[in-house]
Amino acid sequence: MPDARRLRRLAEELEESGLPRRGGGPQRALLLEEIDHALRPAVHERHVPSTGTIVDPRADPSSWARRTQLDITRGAVVRHTLDASRRFVDGLSSWLLRRPDGPGDEWVLFDRPAGSERDLVVLADVFDATIVQRHPTGVVRVVGSFGVLRFEGLAWHHEPPVAAWVETVTAGTFTGDRDVMEAMLRMAVHDLGSLGIGALLLYRPVGDAAIPFEERLPTPPALRIRTASHLAPVRHALAQVDGAAVFDVDGVLRHLGVLLVPSPDAETAVETIGGTRHTFGLRYSHDDPTTTVIAVSEDGPVSVMRHGQVLSRPQPVSS
Description:
By secondary structure, the protein is α+β, with helices and mostly antiparallel strands. Helix content is 32%, strand content 22%. A hairpin with a 5-residue loop joins β5 (130-134) and β6 (140-144).
């Protein structure tokens, strides 16, 4: 068992970083134990194993496969200690499910890896659980209704839930499909920002106006932002090109690596902000007011722009 004083310090650190203070008792103790294990895994011959735990799921198990689009196999953990059980858990395709009360621990196996940050957000929502993962890259994540807490070796970073931001982004002058916008924000935050992939994403629901950009690459495949299997190739391509990716009203990728060309009016009216990517994105949003621009920095932060303005992200509320 982890040292009690160490767990208290961990709890304080997590609460300062964004983990809600509410709750306690066995569930809280179990969660802290799993986070502590993810931060301090057993090392064998210099190999640091990945791991993953689904903590205290509350949703009906009959809905898990349908809502995650995974084939899920479950098996009770019997005749194994906790340490022995962990040897079979990689936090990608195989997971340990733990509850503070009721039936014992279980193994949960998926038919494909589901270990990206975006996958963890889906799993936490579908299982109504808190997910704790140590990724093979060494990144530790804690994911739940509070958002994502990400530890990359020095400190915890809190990524609030995207849902509240979607309400802000789709209010007022927004043009397009709310679900597509939400899918684009989730990809920007959890597929690009979390991996340090800088990008400019343009959601362009009105496509019959003059196009204020220059195409430099061939027309890409018609990949859809709302189709889970299409996200990996989109992410892979964005990591290899400069310029912007343009999506239509249905969230279909139509252009890749385009050069944004601001008008003289935009250059005068919109001042520079941050780096070149953000400045060009902001000026483009001035010239094409029905388009929503998402700029992802290489160091993770995501900005949303429209009408030559940056749309502020709601601040997390302490609990």
